[in-house]
Structures are given as C-alpha cells and as structure tokens.
Amino acid sequence: MPFETLNLGIQLTLPTNGTKNWGTTLKNTTWTKISQHQHTGSGDGAKLLTTSLNDAIITTAKLANNMGRKVATTLTPAGTTETVNWDNGNVQKLDLGSASGNVTLTFSNPATGAWYQLTVQQAATARTITWPGTVLWANGQAPILSTADDSIDMVWFYWDGTNYFGTWENAFA
Predict the structure, then answer these.
(1) pLDDT per residue over 33-77, tens digit each?
(2) Which residues of the chain does CATH 2.60.120 include?
(3) pTM, whole model, 2 decimals?
(4) Quick one: fold of 68-172?
C-alpha cells in the first residue's frame, strides 16, 4: 500500500489508497487544518521560532513544570526550621550540615496528585527531622535517618489534596 509522509514538527504517515481511503480524508481535513495554524495564533502555518522562547511566552521553567519534574537548589537550614516550597521544584535536597540542631520541616504549595522527592544529606553531627503532621507514613513509620556524616536518605511523598503519603529508603552509599 502506498504511503505519504507529512512532517510539521511531528511526523504523520498516511496510506494514500485502499478500501476505506481514510488516510486521504484525514490529510485533507484534520492535517491541513493543523498545518495552517501555529501555536502563536497567527494561523500562517509557520514553525514556532526559537526567538519566541522568552519569558513572555515559553520558558524553560514553564516547560519543566509541565513535564512534572523540576529540580530545586539545595536547602540549607541555618537554624532548626526549614520550609520546603514545592513551587521551587518537586525534587529537592535538604543538607542538614548547616542546621544548628534538629530540624522541623514545613511543606508549602503542593499540587493535588503530584509526587515529590526529598533527598536528605546528614551532617557530621547527626540531626533528626520533625515532619509535618499532614504526612502519613507507610506502616506508620517515619524515616529512620542515617547517622553517618554525608549519608543520603531518600523520601517520597504523594499529595492527595489533604495529606502527604510518605515512604522512604535510607543509607544510600
């Protein structure tokens, strides 16, 4: 069966003949309409130019948020409290080396249905974490953090709009 390949940034291969001839119908209706409209709204069928990728239209940060994975900078508590703002990224690291004592965490700006990851790096003086009351732990067990200097523990959360459902693994080497 003969085929025709159309390419407008995505590729569509259609059969050009056959008993149903659906490929020609699709090409002459849907694909033609898609090809005559660009995302900037001008309708001239031109490709979206790289110069259009700026803060007013599309940004790397906006794309990262839409992809569901955004890595934030490392959190370094100076005292004994730290706020994990999930708007800054759903993958975050907490370095306990700068904390002056055990750390109480607060979580802010979760999105319903989102998954979050918090990597905890222990300090030379081992610290504990007091987790927000909205966290429900698998088997009712909060993380037992590693105590060795620079040890890494991983904690994952799912936010259902009311509670975080947490699970963890420790002692990554």
Answers:
(1) 555 554 444 455 555 455 545 555 555 555 555 555 667 789 999
(2) 68-172
(3) 0.62
(4) Jelly Rolls (2.60.120)
